[in-house]
Design goal:
The chain is α/β, with parallel strands linked by helices. It has one domain (2-180): 3-Layer(aba) Sandwich (D-Maltodextrin-Binding Protein, domain 2), CATH 3.40.190. It has 8 helices and 5 strands. The strands form 2 sheets. A 3-stranded parallel sheet has the order 2-1-3. Strands 4-5 form a two-stranded antiparallel ribbon. β4 and β5 (159-160) form a beta hairpin. α1 runs parallel beside α2. The chain is globular, with a radius of gyration of 18 Å.
């Protein structure tokens, strides 16, 4: 069951990348734009750097999906996704914070990264210019394909900063038999 969750998460990541990459040609309203707002030279591919915290089997599966995307949809759209694991979620969060606070030795921020909502809220509060409203790059039809409750969690100050490509749930499990002893 755990493996299916990884596969679903990796597939969801690629769906989000595909939707954002699809926006590299035009904004949802039809206006020409690029996720990083830098138009590539004629004949060059738009390069999207994607940071994540997947490792081992999750990373291998994600790498296969990205390779498939780059060879098919990405190739058709002249987009190439480069994905890099940053280690753990803490490592990724620390790297992003270093970049946002100009302490990273000129490391450039990724175009797309995985993050928890609390971290994104902090970025919106302190560095709103570093993020883009995903609704400018993803059509309403594409947004409708997400679980709307999860999508709403990604809306901050009326803008969509988080596409729900993975979902974590905190659980408390207890052994009632052991607890009854007390």
């Amino acid at each position: 069951m755990k493996r299916k969750g990884w596969i679903a998460g990796a597939a969801a990541c690629m769906m989000a990348v595909s939707m954002l990459a699809g926006g590299c040609g035009e904004k949802a309203g039809g206006e020409t734009a690029h996720v990083n707002e830098q138009k590539p030279e004629e004949g060059e591919k738009t390069r999207l750097v994607f940071w994540h915290y997947y490792n081992d089997a999750q990373k291998q599966h994600l790498d296969r999906l990205i390779k498939e995307y780059n060879e098919t949809v990405g190739n058709d759209r002249n987009v190439e996704v480069e994905a890099y694991s940053q280690g753990s979620i803490d490592d990724l969060t620390n790297k992003i914070n270093l970049i946002l606070n100009d302490s990273s030795n000129d490391v450039e921020m990724a175009n797309i990264f995985l993050a928890y909502r609390d971290m994104v809220v902090d970025v919106v509060r302190n560095h709103p210019e570093k993020l883009v409203d995903a609704s400018e790059y993803v059509s309403e039809e594409q947004l409708d394909s997400y679980n709307q409750d999860y999508l709403e969690e990604g809306r901050i100050n009326g803008k969509i900063y988080i596409l729900p490509v993975a979902k974590s749930t905190e659980l408390l499990l207890m052994n009632q038999t052991k607890l009854d002893v007390f």
